[in-house]
Amino acid sequence: MKKKETLHPAIYDLKVDMDKGKLTRRDFLRYATLLGMSAAAASQMAGLWWPKKAFAAEPVRGGTLKIAGQVQKITHPAQFSWVAPSQVGRQVAEYLTFTDGKNITHPYLLKNWQVSDDLKTWTLNLNQGIKWNNGDTFTSEDVVFTFNQWMNKDVGSSMLGLVGKYLDLSGIEKVDQYQVKLHLKTPEIALPEHLFHYPALVLNAKTFDGDFIKKPVGTGPYTLESYLPGERAVLKARKDYWQKGADGKPLPYMDGMEFIDMGTEMAPQIAAIKAGEVDMVDLGDVAGVDVFQALSKDPNINMIPYTSASTRVLRMRVDIKPWDNNKVRTALKICQHHEKLLSLVYYNEGLQGQDFHVYQLHPEYCEKPIPKYDPKRAKQLLKEAGYPNGIDINLAAGTWPDVVRYAEVLKQDAAPAGFRINIQTMPTSQYWEKWTEVDLGITPWMHRPIGTMVLNLAYVNDDAGKPVPWNETRWSDPEFSKLLKEANGLLNVDERRKVFCKLENIQQQRGSIGIPYWRNAWYCLRKNVKNVSGVPSLYITFNDAWLA
Fold this sequence. Notes:
This protein is an alpha+beta fold. Among the domains are: 52 residues, no CATH class; 112 residues, Periplasmic binding protein-like II (D-Maltodextrin-Binding Protein, domain 2), CATH 3.40.190; 213 residues, Dipeptide-binding Protein, domain 3 (Roll), CATH 3.10.105.10. 29% of the residues lie in helices and 20% in strands. Strands 1, 8, 9, 10, 11, 12, 13, 14, 15, 16, 17 and 18 form a twelve-stranded mixed beta sheet that branches. Strands 4-5-7-6 form a four-stranded antiparallel beta sheet, covered by helices on one side. Strands 2-3 form a two-stranded antiparallel ribbon. Helix 10 packs antiparallel against helix 12, helix 11 runs antiparallel to helix 13 and helix 16 runs antiparallel to helix 17. The longest helix has 18 residues. It starts with 9 loop residues before the first helix and ends with a strand. The model has no long low-confidence stretch (mean pLDDT 93).
C-alpha cells in the first residue's frame, strides 16, 4: 500500500487562504510544492487536474540539435555569471530541483524534501540509482561537496550571496548515503527555487578539481565530446541516463547537441536558422526583440513567448563619487522616461519597470506607480549635490542592441538636467570582465521566479559586512537588509507583500539602480524541434525533446 504523503501544517493554512480568495490556485501550487508536497497532490487539493505528459506525436529517436549560441570559457560552474555557459553545462550536469514554466518547483536529482514547521530544517532525500557518466554512484557526499563549493569564498560564486545569508558550513549535515539535512540560521521558504539557480549544477565529489571542461563528469543526459571556446561545443547522448522516455528506454531521444558560436551579432544567426543550418538560436543572454521581429512570421520557425523578469539594470557604484550621493543617483533615475524607453528600445515587448528589482508578476510584488520623467527636478537635485553646472559621467555598455539604444536615449533625455553622458561601448565579453567594477553601467539581469531571490543576490552584504559576489553596486542598506531577512522567512503572501511595499520604497527612494523596463523572452526554434517545455529564464533543458 502506498504511504500517505505527510503534509507540512502550513499547507492547510494555504488551502484556507485559497478558498477565501486570498491566494490564487497558482500561488497555492507554488507554495505547497515548496513545502514538500508533490505537484500532483497539490493540484488535487487545489481542485485542478494534473495532466500526465502527453505527446502530440510519437517521439522519434536520433538526430543532432544544432544551436547558435555563445561558447564561452568554462572552469567552475558555480562561477557562471552568464546563462550561455550553463546551457552547455546543464546537458552534462544537473540540478537538485527544477522550476517549470508555471513557477512550480519539482524534485530533480532529489526524490523529495521535507521542511520543519519553522522553515529552518530542510531534509533533502536523493533519488537513488543515479550514475555519473564515469560510472560513480550519485550520493549525498556529492551534494555536501557541492554546497561546500558554493560556500567557499575563494570560489566567488553568486550562490554564496543567495544561500549564505541563511546557511553556513556548520548547517550542512550528511545523514546517510542518500539524505542531507540543512539547518538554516534563519527561515527560508524559497530554498528549493534557489537550488535551480543556473550556477547550482551538482558536482562529483571524487573528480571535480575546479575545471569542469578538463573533467566533465555529470549525471546529465549528454557527455561532453569537445569544447572549443568561441567556436563549438559537441555533446553526445548517454546510453545509461537515469530518466526514461515514453518508450521506456533511457532519454534523451536525440543523439546529440551541438552549440555553434556565431558571435554576438544576430544577423548571421537569423540567417542561419532561416536557412535550416541551425535548429535554434539561444536567446538566454541576448535581447531577442530583433530576432522576434525578423522571425515571428516565418512559417518554419516557432517563437515561443514567455513573460519574463529579465531586464537591463542601470547600476551605480555607491562607493565611488558621484554615486555615493543619493541626490545624484535619484537625479539620473528620474531622467529615465520609462514609457519612451520601453517603446523605443524594446518595441513595447514587455512591461515598464519602477526602479526596484521586483517584477509585476512576482508573487510578493507590491503595486507602485511608474516613476515620472522629471529633468527639471533632476537639475535641482544636481545643484543641491554640488553640481550647479551639471556633471560629466561615463556610462559603460556592452554591445547588446537594446542596451546601446537604452544608453543613447538616456543620454538624450538626461541632457536637459545637466548630465553630460559619455557612452563607453565595448564587446559584451569585455563588459562581463568588469561588470562589477565600472562606476556606472547597464547590466543585463535574467529572470528569477521570486522577488527575494534577486534581492539576496545583488543588494546585500555577507555576514562579514562585505558585498556579496553579485552586489555590483556595493549598495547595502541596514533597514532594507533587515526587512529582506524578514521577508525570506514569511510564508503568508499577504504578509510578504506588506514587507515588499517597504523594500520597494527603499530601493526606489535611496537605492542604486534604475530599471526602466522588463523584457519579454522567446525560445527561437525551427518547427522540426518537438516537445519543448520552456521556462521564462530560457534555460535549455530538452531531455525529452526530439527532432522530426
